[in-house]
Amino acid sequence: MDATLAALADPTRRKVIDLLREGPRPAGELAQAVQMSAPALSRHLRVLRAGGLVRAEAGGADARLRLYTLRQEPFAALQAWLDQVQAFWAEQLGSFKDHVERRQ
């Protein structure tokens, strides 16, 4: 979870995630879309891979070409945690509402 949140803390990496939601893309296309040099984007992709958010796969006939895709698992884990936090606050607010209604 920490690696996921750390990876998503950067706006460039969130933009890359948004682009990959549309489908697999090569690093060069991602770099162009976020208006960044390939070496600079490579550092962001490394963080996203280390956090388990994306994977790189060989794409097409050119073995040098890497297509980046999203991995579902870390997002599912993040959603499960957020659901727990939301349930906590819903319970707290419900209790507060009941308390206010009893006092009236």
From TrEMBL:
By its UniProt entry, which InterPro entries does this protein fall under?
Answer: ArsR-like_HTH, HTH_ArsR_DNA-bd_dom, WH-like_DNA-bd_sf, WH_DNA-bd_sf
Keywords carried by this UniProt record: DNA-binding
Gene Ontology molecular-function annotations: DNA binding; DNA-binding transcription factor activity
**HTH arsR-type domain spans which residues?**
1-89
Pfam families given in the database record: HTH_5
Under the heading PANTHER family, the entry gives: TRANSCRIPTIONAL REGULATORY PROTEIN (PTHR38600)
- What protein name is recorded for this chain? DNA-binding transcriptional regulator, ArsR family
Q: Which organism is it from?
A: Nonomuraea jiangxiensis
